[in-house]
Write a structure and sequence with these properties.
Helix content is 21%, strand content 34%. With 165 residues, it is of the alpha+beta class. It has one domain: Nucleoside Triphosphate Pyrophosphohydrolase (Alpha-Beta Complex). A hairpin with a 4-residue loop joins strand 7 and strand 8.
Length: 165
Amino acid sequence: MKDNQQELLPLCDEQGNITGAATRGECHNGSRLMHPVVHLHVFNSRGELYLQKRPDWKDIQPGKWDTAVGGHVDLGENVEQALKREVEEEIGITNYTPERIKVYVYDSVRECELVFVHKTVYDGNIRPTNELDGGRFWSIAEIKAKIGKEVFTPNFEQEFQQVFG
């Protein structure tokens, strides 16, 4: 398996207005074309945070632990549709209530994303699909102890510290 570099993604401005389209390859090649993405942080009722393990075939940050769900908004899709699709595709859940908690621009050497961050509390069965290399719940103390140690994606570390301190 590998990422489809020809997949068309919408381009957007900082307000989320769609301004055009480009391929995944173009968006991730250092062009820094801003494209919208969705994130969902999944907590259980004990306050632990579910993280996904990125598979080794991913083109960005392979093998690192990351936000439970993260994915691109597809061309012609809105944020809510993308979130619903990505959550089902990545962790196999459909009966949850997302709460939008932040929108920000993530800018790295490789890419520029407008990130729509959501969270939910969920105690049901999580079924990571073959898009991931599994996942598990982490205590907040366990996450804080591993920050800066090359365990997590830089995006997750930055977002976790900004949103959950």
